[in-house]
Amino acid sequence: MKPRSNTVVGLDIGTTKICAVVAEETPEGLHILGFGTHPASGLRKGVVINIESTVQSIKRAVEEAELMSGREIRQVYAGIAGGHIQAFNSHGVIALKDQEVTPNEVRRVIDAAKAVAIPMDREVLHIIPQEFIIDDQDGISEPVGMCGVRLEAHVHVITGAVAAAQNIVKCCNRAGLDVADIILEPLASAEAVLTDDERELGVALVDMGGGTTDIVVIAQGSVKHTSVLTLGGNHVTSDIAMGLRTPSAEAEKIKRKHACALISKVGKDETIEVPGVGGRRPRILNRRILAEIVEPRAEEIFSLVRMDLQKRGVEEAAVSGVVLCGGASLLEGSVELAEQVFGLPVRRGMPRHIEGLVDQLKDPSYATGVGLVEHAIKNRSEQHAVLNESDENLFGRITQKMKGWFQHFFFGDE
């Protein structure tokens, strides 16, 4: 197998599974060549806690993707998530030297906007422009070439723990992979599942993973808010294991096959078989008992998401509603329960605009993997170097990549 220059690979490093997606760009859109998944055993709440276990999981997922696609994988675009992610909105102002906005002036005002005090153990991951203001004219998305005296920028700054990103790069390097870029996973998911109309009107994306629930609010085409809650599908599994007194592995199977997030959707006469612990005989229980365990936890997750949106003042921005993705969103009744909690229209988000292995990847649990390759193809022209675990200034190089990304995405090539 030989690597090809037009092939990109997204590596979704999740709490419960590692997923590698191999794709290439064609005139018809994103063509999926292959993918591989393997259970993750070295992560907790989106953060690496065991290097060796994570390396082995990455190797297995990549090997499966190589076999399916027939391509050798040497370089990946890795996702990052976890409770260490923090984000805030910032504002910068500069005077225009020649009373005309140039790409250099845009860089200057972005630098001014991100010039805030950040702890030593954290660094900027993404700098996403929201809008520009020239003199008193606001709502400008592409200011280059416009005239004025003063340029202002509102940006969304996403930061992460240095150690968390370094551990991801280290795991990939030890698995024999170069890391071309590190991308916040909910941003990648949004790339894959949201429509242009939702982005413009206003939408909240809720990516429900195994260890975390990631939130992104996008309105007027720009990111208004991002956050990560350290609750996810694994907590539902744990509740089932404790409530039904069954091993965690069996609780996960029961969750996938029988669980429902809404008690009212379960028939009174429906039953399930629950394996016992330590060789004890299986038991037959009413399925409503399972729903009574699952619904409170699912409602808690959605309620915490809504509280987060209210706290940040962005709940009203989600005019078009809420989009659920991630493996935990597949829980039966989750859409209906979310509609009750949010009081908004809710849908499940599937990867869009893909060709090739469409049937296998038209699933909310693959949104991040597909989104990573979409991001990579859109911004590959801005990539010039890979990230390495031995870099003294790892995040400095990440930040340079992010600068190139927002320039290409918002302003086009110079």
Describe this structure in words.
The two termini are about 35 Å apart. The protein is α/β, with parallel strands linked by helices. Among the domains are: about 70 residues, Dna Ligase, domain 1; about 160 residues, 2-Layer Sandwich (Nucleotidyltransferase, domain 5), CATH 3.30.420. It has a 6-stranded mixed sheet, sandwiched between helices. Strands 14-13-12-17-18 form a 5-stranded mixed sheet, sandwiched between helices. It has 12 helices and 19 strands. A hairpin with a 2-residue loop joins strand 8 and strand 9. Helix 8 packs across helix 9.
What oligomeric state best describes the polypeptide chains here?
single chain
Largest sheet: 6 strands, mixed
Percent of residues in helices comes to 25-40%
Q: Rg from C-alpha positions?
A: 22 Å
CATH architecture of the domain at 196-351: 2-Layer Sandwich
> What is the strand content?
25-35%
CATH class of the domain at 196-351: Alpha Beta
Poorly predicted regions are 381-385, 401-414
Strand order of the largest sheet: 11-6-1-2-3-19
End-to-end span in angstroms? 37 Å
Structure annotation, total helices: 12
Write the CATH fold name of the domain at 196-351.
Nucleotidyltransferase, domain 5
Q: Helices and strands: which structural class?
A: alpha/beta
